[in-house]
Each structure stands twice: as C-alpha cells, then as structure tokens.
Recover the amino acids of this structure.
C-alpha cells in the first residue's frame, strides 16, 4: 500500500497509560473489506448486555453499543475524511469508558458538530467515495446517519454521542459506555447440555464455525449445528461477532459472560 493515509488504526486498551494493549490492529485494502474488518474489531472488543423479556423465558445478549450506530460511524469516517494528507487517516479507540472514531479533516462547511443529532442537509466531502459506498449499500446520502446514531444510542439507554470537529484536530465521534456494568452474569448457574459445556471448554477467544467444529473434533456439520452451536446460541452461552449478518462468511463466535462463568465453575 503506497498511501499510508488509507490505513485504519484500531486499538483497545484498559486505559491510555497502560503498558500493553488488549488488541491492536492496522487495516488496509479495499474499502468495503476494511469497513467490515474495523466493525468486527469494535464488536469483538466491546461487551454485551443481557436482556430478559417479560413474556419469554430466554435471555438475549445484545451489544452495548448498537451495531447499526457503530457501522454508521465507521462508514461516515471513510466518506468524510481528508484523503489529501499523508499524516491523515482513521483511528478507532476502545476503552472501558467508550468508543472513539476519529478521521482527519473537519466537517464540511455548513455542518455543525453540535447539531448533528438534529435534521440537516447532506454535505458530501468526497462525493465519489460516498457514491461508491451508496452503491454498495453502506450509506443513503440523505443526511440521516448522525440522526440514526443518536436515536440508536437513546433506544439502547446510552448517553448521547458527541461529535467534535476542528481543522487541526479532525473529527471525533464519541460513544459513551453506560454507567452500570453492561454484562450481567446470573447468580445461579443454569444447567446446560454436555455439548454446550464442551464449547465453553474449547472456545477461548473467537472462532468461525469451521474452526469451532475442528476444535471439538466433529466432522458432521449438521450434527454440530443442531446439537452444539444452535443450543449454545439459544441459551446465551455464545454470541455472533456479526449479529446483523448471521450468514456472513466472516461470521465468528465468542463466549458471553454466561459462557465464561460456566467455564469458571468447572472443577
């Protein structure tokens, strides 16, 4: 890659003064692939929140930060950043207090950072890139993206996101973590099938369906889905890393707080 300003830096840390990062990645390549890779990075490094339905006995693990809001923030960074300077780029930072998406440049003339959560006209800094993203289904070019981000955060019970813009500082979109701990571990450990228990023993980070099946030493894909993967998903033991794309070829699976607690109770 000859142009370093086309790369994305993504980092996850417990606090900025830490000696080690929890996760650090640099992404480059076709814009659609990088968008998906950065989105996956954010979702796998942010926690899930358990939700219990009044009329149903099962629980649902949903991302703390709405997937559609995170994806929109990433897409906007690509569509509106300044590509002219080699010192520019896109950076994503994840910490216990929130998620920050930064891009070089500033907001287009006529667009105010403090009013992005209100109706406004769509002003495109990079019209050709925005049109390509539109054709690929990543954006609408209607100026509704920031409204959707704000509304999604509100519906998720999160503090309102904040945008900041400056000629020398770039554009920053900040998502703030909820005040309470998002992942909920039940006080009583539920019973799970031996097959689901085996998944908790072999799944350490995240794995694709084929990788997880190989870790379990299973050759029959249908048997694996029916007796292992689907029950683990239904019982909230594992979740998809791409919850809005269940059939994606980039789909992977990770343990939830419940899944990790089941492993901790093993003798």
């Amino acid at each position: 890659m000859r142009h370093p300003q086309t790369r994305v830096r993504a980092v996850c840390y417990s606090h900025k003064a830490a000696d080690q990062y929890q996760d650090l990645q640099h992404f480059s390549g076709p814009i659609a692939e990088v968008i998906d890779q950065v989105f996956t990075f954010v979702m796998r490094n942010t926690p899930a929140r358990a939700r219990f339905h009044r009329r149903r006995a099962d629980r649902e693990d949903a991302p703390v930060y709405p997937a559609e809001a995170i994806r929109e923030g990433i897409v906007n960074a690509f569509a509106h950043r300044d590509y002219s300077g080699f010192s520019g780029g896109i950076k994503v930072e994840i910490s216990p207090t929130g998620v920050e998406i930064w891009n070089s440049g500033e907001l287009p003339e006529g667009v105010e950072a403090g009013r992005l959560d209100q109706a406004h006209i769509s002003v495109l800094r990079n019209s050709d890139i925005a049109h390509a993203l539109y054709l690929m289904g990543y954006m609408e070019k209607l100026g509704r993206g920031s409204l959707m981000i704000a509304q999604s955060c509100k519906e998720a019970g999160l503090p309102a996101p904040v945008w900041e813009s400056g000629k020398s500082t770039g554009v920053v979109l900040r998502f703030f973590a909820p005040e309470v701990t998002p992942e909920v571990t039940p006080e009583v450990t539920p019973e799970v099938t031996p097959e689901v228990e085996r998944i908790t023993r072999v799944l350490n980070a995240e794995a694709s369906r084929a990788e997880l099946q190989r870790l379990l030493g299973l050759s029959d894909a249908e048997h694996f889905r029916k007796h292992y993967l689907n029950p683990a998903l239904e019982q909230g033991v594992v979740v998809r890393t791409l919850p809005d794309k269940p059939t994606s070829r980039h789909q992977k699976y990770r343990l939830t707080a419940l899944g990790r607690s089941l492993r901790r109770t093993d003798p």
